[in-house]
């Protein structure tokens, strides 16, 4: 009732304003007429002009502001069809029916908001909402599923807030009458000095106001989420309802057309439903929405819960009997015909998605930008920028999504606070990169590189690098290596990319860890080994047995094999320090310690070489990434005939070659001189004697072919005649003993034989008639042939 009372008060106030406006307009016209009459009678003085100016300035004409949903800049109305600009008789009847329905609804439900039945379209013509929908089948498989279709629609839509968030624009606003009389503005008599002083004072006020607003913003930042919304539950919004049943939809759900997100009907963000419609009917919700939409029953065929506007048999989810089928007595208005044209989306527009290929969505402390594929030369399709403040001036982080990159770059995350960049790659990179985190692309700086271990033969999954260390993680290796950490010393010379291979960083320490090898006993399976290169020591730690709490350890003093005088050094017991949980006899022997030491020296050399190769690989990866970032090469599908220039050129070349080959084959098949020209040397010019000989051979060969064909037809004719005579003679000899079946077979054979003989006789007679004509025609062609014509004319 309060909503209805406010609505009535607004209408009464609007009527009072209109009446006051008409009275003021009449008074103004009367005053102007009096002024004109007075002007004719007497001459106006300066005082009279000032009085007239004062009276006219006191007249106020109310201005009705209209914010159209569509502007001439966005839509060219002149190019729209007639159905957009006018209404047919059936549409006018439908609008009258909608008005009648709306009046009955307002009378029965005065406390509810007015129905959204016939808004204005692009041409500001009222149209029934159900006729604005026209189901259209599109040739794109991506639009057959609701999620991809909703995403496609949301990319095309741009949200524009309504002038009044509490109600949509349904009726046309009254146009403002232009002012008929205008007064020349008076001279500006203000002092410039006073204006400058006023500007300075305003600047100080603005500075104080900005400071106050900043403090106010900081104060409100904490209580921002807790602030109540004054318009909560009153705003107008529309969304899509998908009913269960068809296409294996298990349950009802909502779709937000602006975000393409789906919500359950039990979601608390949806406070209620006033009405819903499709391309066939319009329904009003008669259920109480005190518990939001959680208790609503979406049985549109139930007139108690959903009041429908048009009669008909389209009643979802309600079982209909023969007597329950609705009969429309409104001249078949239920057969709604849409006034809009069918949706036509070209492949270019479907790929472009957003208007002009770009869309910007502003969020609270964030901005989302979208681009169409291949619109940016670097493959950028989306960018999400997060800000620290509400004015969106201080950037916190940036996320960029890429597509169709040849280097398989998929996502780039930039943290502006820490200056850390993280690149994410899809499988297929030449170096099997998965993640690359870095602050600088210069070598020997802080970075983390992750790999797809299944694409590498060494099983490397992660590499962490700092100016003085490098750590690698492995998985699935045959030697069970899982971890390698390298400490580097200070470099003597300055690093350059060209001298990196010849000037590696000095290795101080190498630490390697291994997984458990079940094929070896725990006391012989090394868990960790440390190569102390600068101290010339090697430390080993073995795996711990399950029934032990400590593990065996061993340390070797790595000395050179010869001393300064060239004498060979003998291994002594003090070169190996051992701690064994369960001492064994063979480990105490010097031979075992010597063999272990020699093996560890080889492993140390191998590890140092692998470290050097890892450093080179990092340099090659950085060089490759730099080149890829400069080139921005994009991959193009072979099926994309518009952009794939190489495929297009190759296809055109193949089509041209096939066409030329086809023409060559056709010429070869139709060239009657080709079998005879092959006998001559290639590229040699014909002589007169050769031309005459070619002509005679061609005619002689054609004549012989005609004779052979006539002989073949004659031979078949004689053969069929002889066989028929033999069959007749056989019949005369065995006529008395033949059965009726044999006589039927004989008569059938005779009929078929006579048919074949007759056909052969006709072919032979026709061949005898056409053979001389074909011979003369070939002779004429030979005389007209450009290869023989000039030479044969000399002999005629």
Summarize the structure in words.
With 796 residues, the protein is of the alpha+beta class. Among the domains are: 89-132 and 271-311, no CATH class; 455-491 and 503-630, no CATH class; 636-669; 672-793, no CATH class. The protein is built from 13 helices and 22 strands. The strands form three sheets. The chain has a 16-stranded antiparallel sheet with strand order 7-8-9-10-11-12-13-14-15-16-17-18-19-20-21-22, with helices on one face. A three-stranded antiparallel sheet has the order 1-2-3, with no helix packed on it. A three-stranded antiparallel sheet has the order 4-5-6, with no helix packed on it. A hairpin with a 7-residue loop joins β9 and β10 (395-402). α11 runs antiparallel to α12. It is extended and about 130 Å long. The model is unreliable at 1-5, 34-42, 56-72, 171-177 and 317-334 (pLDDT under 50).
Write out key terms for the chains shown.
16-stranded antiparallel β-sheet, alpha+beta, extended, three-stranded antiparallel β-sheet, 22 strands, disordered N terminus, 13 helices, 37% helix
């Amino acid at each position: 009732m309060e909503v209805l009372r406010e609505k009535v008060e607004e209408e009464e106030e609007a009527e009072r304003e209109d009446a006051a406006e008409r009275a003021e307009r009449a008074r103004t016209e009367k005053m102007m007429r009096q002024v004109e009459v007075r002007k004719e009678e007497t001459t106006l003085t300066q005082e009279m002009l000032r009085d007239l100016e004062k009276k006219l300035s006191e007249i106020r004409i109310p201005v009705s502001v209209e914010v159209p949903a569509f502007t001439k800049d966005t839509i060219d109305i002149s190019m729209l069809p007639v159905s957009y600009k006018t209404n047919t008789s059936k549409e006018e009847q439908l609008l009258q029916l909608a008005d009648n329905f709306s009046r009955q609804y307002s009378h029965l439900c005065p406390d509810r908001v007015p129905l959204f039945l016939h808004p204005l379209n692009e041409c500001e013509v009222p149209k029934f909402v159900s006729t604005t929908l026209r189901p259209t089948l599109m040739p794109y498989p991506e639009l057959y599923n609701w999620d991809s279709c909703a995403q496609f629609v949301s990319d095309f839509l741009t949200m524009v807030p309504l002038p009044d968030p509490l109600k949509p624009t349904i009726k046309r606003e009254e146009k403002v009458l232009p002012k008929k009389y205008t007064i020349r503005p008076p001279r500006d008599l203000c002092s410039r000095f006073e204006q400058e002083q006023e500007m300075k004072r305003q600047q100080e006020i603005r500075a104080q106001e900005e400071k106050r607003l900043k403090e106010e913003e900081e104060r409100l930042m904490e209580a921002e989420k807790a602030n109540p919304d004054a318009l909560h539950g009153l705003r107008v919004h529309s969304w899509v309802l998908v009913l269960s049943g068809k296409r294996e939809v298990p349950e009802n759900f909502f779709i937000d057309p602006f975000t393409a997100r789906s919500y359950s009907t039990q979601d608390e963000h949806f406070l209620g439903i006033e009405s819903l419609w499709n391309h066939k009917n319009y329904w009003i919700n008669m259920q109480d929405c005190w518990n939001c939409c959680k208790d609503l029953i979406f049985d549109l065929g139930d007139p108690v819960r959903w009041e429908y506007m048009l009669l008909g048999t389209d009643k979802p989810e309600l079982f209909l009997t023969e007597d329950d089928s609705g009969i429309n007595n409104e001249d078949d208005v239920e057969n709604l015909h849409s006034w809009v044209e069918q949706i036509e989306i070209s492949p270019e527009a479907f790929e472009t998605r957003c208007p002009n290929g770009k869309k910007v969505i502003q969020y609270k402390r964030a901005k989302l930008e979208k681009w169409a594929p291949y619109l940016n030369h670097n493959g950028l399709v989306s960018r999400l920028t997060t800000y620290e403040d509400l004015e969106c001036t201080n950037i916190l982080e940036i996320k960029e999504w890429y597509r169709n990159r040849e280097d398989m770059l998929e996502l780039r995350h930039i943290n502006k606070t820490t200056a850390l960049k993280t690149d994410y790659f899809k499988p297929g990179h030449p170096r099997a990169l998965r993640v690359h985190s870095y602050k600088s692309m210069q070598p020997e700086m802080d970075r983390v590189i992750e790999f797809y271990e299944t694409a590498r033969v060494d099983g490397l999954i992660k590499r962490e690098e700092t100016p003085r260390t490098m750590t690698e993680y492995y998985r699935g290796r045959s030697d069970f290596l899982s971890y390698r950490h390298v400490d580097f010393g200070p470099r003597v010379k300055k690093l350059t990319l060209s001298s990196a291979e010849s000037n590696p960083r000095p290795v101080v320490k190498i630490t390697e860890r291994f997984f458990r090898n079940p094929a070896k006993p725990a006391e012989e399976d090394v868990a960790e080994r440390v190569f102390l290169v600068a101290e010339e020591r090697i430390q080993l730690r073995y795996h711990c047995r399950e029934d032990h709490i400590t593990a065996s350890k061993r340390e070797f003093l790595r000395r050179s094999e010869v001393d300064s005088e060239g004498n060979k050094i003998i291994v002594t017991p003090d070169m190996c320090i051992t701690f064994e949980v369960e001492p064994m006899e063979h480990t105490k022997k010097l031979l075992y310690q010597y063999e272990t030491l020699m093996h560890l020296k080889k492993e140390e050399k191998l590890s140092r070489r692998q470290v050097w190769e890892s450093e080179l690989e990092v340099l090659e990866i950085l060089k490759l990434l730099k080149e890829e970032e400069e080139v921005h090469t994009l991959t193009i599908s072979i099926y994309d005939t518009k952009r794939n220039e190489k495929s297009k050129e190759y296809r055109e070349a193949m089509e041209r070659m096939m066409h030329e080959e086809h023409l060559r084959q056709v010429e070869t098949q139709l060239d009657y001189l080709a079998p005879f020209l092959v006998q001559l040397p290639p590229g040699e010019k014909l002589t007169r004697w050769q031309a005459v000989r070619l002509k005679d051979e061609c005619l002689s060969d054609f004549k012989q072919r005609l004779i052979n064909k006539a002989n073949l037809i004659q031979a078949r004719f004689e053969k069929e005649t002889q066989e028929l005579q033999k069959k007749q003679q056989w019949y005369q000899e065995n006529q008395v003993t033949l059965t009726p079946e044999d006589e039927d077979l004989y008569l059938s054979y005779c009929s078929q034989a006579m048919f074949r003989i007759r056909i052969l006789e006709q072919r032979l007679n026709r061949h005898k008639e056409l053979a001389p004509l074909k011979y003369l025609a070939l002779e004429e062609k030979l005389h007209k042939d450009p290869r023989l014509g000039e030479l044969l004319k000399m002999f005629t």
